[in-house]
Amino acid sequence: MGYNEIFHVSCPQRGQRRAGRPPRALGAGGSGRSGPEAGGGQHRDPGRQPGLPPSASPTVRACTRARGAAPQQWWSPAAARPSQAQTRHQGPSRLTAPGPGSGQPPAGTEAREAPGGGRRPSHSAPWRAGGAAGRRRGYPGAAAPRRAMAAKAGAGGLELRAAIGFNGHVPCGLICHPDKEHVLYPLGCTVVIQDLGSKKQTFLHGHTNNVSCIVVSRNGVYVASGQVTYMGFKADIILWDFQRKELLARLSLHKGRIEGLAFSPNSLYLVSLGGQDDGSVVVWHIDKREAICGSPASARSAGNTTIVVCSSCRDEVFVTAGNGTIRVWELDLANRKIRPTECQTGQLRRVSTCVKMTGDDNYFYVGTSSGDVLKVNTNNRLMTDYGPQKEKFSSGVTALLFLKTGDIIVGTGGGIVAHCKGSNYKVMKKIQVQGAVTSLTCRDQDHQFFVGTNACQIYQINYTAFKEELIAACHSEAVHDIVFPVGASDLFATCSKNDIRVWYTPENRELLRIVIPNVTCHAVDFMRDGKSIISAWNDGKIRAFMPETGRPMYVINNAHSLGVTAIAATSDCKRIISGGGEGQVSVWEIGERTHKLGEVLKVHVSAVSCIKVKKDDRECVTASLDGTCIIWDLVRFIRRQMILANTLFKCVCYHPEEYQIITSGTDRRIRYWEVFDGSAIREVEGSVSGSINGMDITSDGAYFVTGGDDHLVKLWDYNEGAVTHVGAGHSGHITRLKICPENKYIVSVSADGAIFLWKFPDLH
To answer: SS3 sequence, 23-65?
Structure first.
């Protein structure tokens, strides 16, 4: 009888402590190891008996062995037929939890006998049509059907409560609706509609990749949006009903990317422009939801066309412009043709960056990358004027807006918003904003307009005073971490390149911004007493700030040689545990005016990705990209357990009762582990495509959330190991996510700078 078996039989207290835990389903390939002396081979629990429920206590197992009673079979018939390999294996076969994400085929899937008698899905089954085989063939959308089936079958949808972010890289992406009460803008693969008064947001979901352009019809009835896709595959245009927020039609002809969209003045037609790999312009009939005709957007001798704008008065006329080309098109509906006329600009050769039609349709203005504005006659297709002649706008003209007075608002790549005379382009007023101006949209001709920049900022500017007011801001780079203060759901902090930001969730607005130029913050945490924000930076420094003002408190220089990649604080606020890119784990003693290195723990050989500390501050667990998770004794500063798996660990969480941990990483599998001996308990498939980068668990331990490279937020039942809800909306890789302390909502952050707040579902 081995040591573990003796311990199980002689200690009923441990068996009682184990009661009520999730089922143990140690697999044949379990990789748990106990302590530094653990050798190779597979872990085996001698106290486990096949046939007994995993929750059965060791005392019951001992009594069953003594009586020699045959336990009742409780596993599935397929699992009850062991193969020769399973017969040779010393432990029980792996049992994965059924349901979404478990790796088992959905109901109705064709299956055939696997070697050893088990059931496996047939390669000819329909649900495999877009899976791994499709991805091997290079079909980029191959994972989508499989993902939808694996993640959403039997799972509800998470409701998106709010989105913090704005994709300022989309030209003319910020649009004020004609009702003057709403603004629309793209964020990832979602179109956000925000009420200017109440700040309430609604969302248009339907795109499968980044939204590349958006336009609203003049009467405000329709919204159209285009997206990016992979080279050689069709990119969708979606036509929406604004009032009902419903998808009306999905129009697919262009390949690769939708570069631009424009509605005709009476909303009869929609003109779409394909990207560089497509190069065509297509006219769609809105009522019939079909294409009327199309043509190459530019002559072979010209460059790429990037802009399309419809006439202000005539439904049959529109303008395209780009690199060395400006064309006016006319639609011949009877013959289903569009006929272009090249505009003559004399000796000038320009790259067009924006186009704006005048209200009477006689002229249109073209902004160029050279920093000047061309005035072109719509009727005779001749350039009549251009300027400014001497002092051109720095970094090019990127956006234009007309006023009733005939003056022009010019936005530039250098972040200048200038009020210019329409006759000679003389600058009368100007202001500086952060980032290049990509959008100018008018709310009221006599009152105000909005400015969107590629730094993902939205400004409100009054015509008279011509002063900017920042009304929305967000990260413009990947967000690396998100954290809540202990016991508070109204605040959270995020970190990114150059900055840390604190957000107020009831209003979804930024409260504090801490800027450290030219460095990247990898991780952030609140001290439990709420007196400081600690952060980990890629320059090897640990920085602490005051949470109210953002003033620096102290800096620990040279904390790690390859940058600080993870950080956590103890409950007594006296110690900080940090992890570095070189794999070193350091324990820092923090006093009122001092901070010194207490201990260095050197076992990991690659970057530490995540650190979690036990509530009693006597133990912590670190996950690393070297394929190990280590449980450390913070009293004696020794390694208690080492967990090995064939993955790069990205995240780890303690169960609130702290007898188990869950991990995940690049192998897309979620594993449950025993803290006591480091043994594997259960393994479920967390994703069918891409690594899992973040996870968090509710305060009662009943549910946990995961997110990763599949762009999906998944809510899991901890005991069942099954997905209950799925949230889709991110277009970038999800980097981290957290459940707020009161279980009101889930916050997820992604590599495209977006922050999404999901309503936590009512699970009772």
So the answer is: CCCCCCCCCEECCCCCCCCCCCCCCCCCCCCCCCCHHHHHHHH
358-372 pLDDT per residue, tens: 888 899 999 999 999
As separate numbers, helices (DSSP H) first and strands (DSSP E) second, the chain gives 7, 58
Count other C-beta atoms under 10 Å from residue 576's C-beta: 26
Contacts of 570 (CB under 8 A, 6+ apart): 528, 576, 577, 613, 617, 634
Cα separation, 175 vs 216, in Å, equals 8
Helix (H) or strand (E) holding 149: helix 143-152
Strand order in the sheet with 269-274: 258-263, 269-274, 280-285, 290-296
pLDDT digits (tens, 9 = 90+) for 295-318: 999 888 788 999 999 999 999 999
Strand pairing of 156-157 and 722-728?
parallel
In this prediction, residue 30 has a pLDDT band, given cuts at 50, 70 and 90, of very low
Q: How far apart are CA 608 and CA 626, in angstroms?
A: 8
| Three-state DSSP state, 86 | helix
Residue with tokens 């795109």: 207
Residue with tokens 């302390």: 741
Residue with tokens 């599949």: 710
The predicted-structure confidence for 653-680, as pLDDT tens digits, reads as follows 999 999 999 999 999 999 999 999 999 9
Which residues make beta-bridge pairs with 629? 623, 643
Q: What is the pTM of this model?
A: 0.77
Residue keyed to tokens 């607005």: 509
Please list, in sequence order, all residues whose beta carbon lies within 8 angstroms of the beta carbon of residue 123, skipping any fewer than 6 positions away: 133
Q: Are 437 and 457 in contact (CB under 8 A)?
A: no
Say what the pLDDT of residue 156 is: 83
Closest CA to 614 of 565, 654, 650: 654
